[in-house]
Amino acid sequence: xxxxxxxxxxxxxxxxxxxxxxxxxxxxxxxxxxxxxxxxxxxxxxxxxxxxxxxxxxxxxxxxxxxxxxxxxxxxxxxxxxxxxxxx
Length: 88
Hints:
mainly alpha, 3 helices
């Protein structure tokens, strides 16, 4: 049964990650410095939330999800941080 739950969580995480990619445009869209700052702060908060979720995950089935969430949030934050630095 736990194998089925793990598979389901991974499937949901994969779907979530696919949706998250829509938030990351492949080409710069010309955000203002204020917009980039807000996006970076939101992405950082999402990353911190994912870290907290990972640190508090106790169920083995949720640990996999927490890891994937943390990795996705970190990549998203790094992407936007790099975009902000390159725009200056």
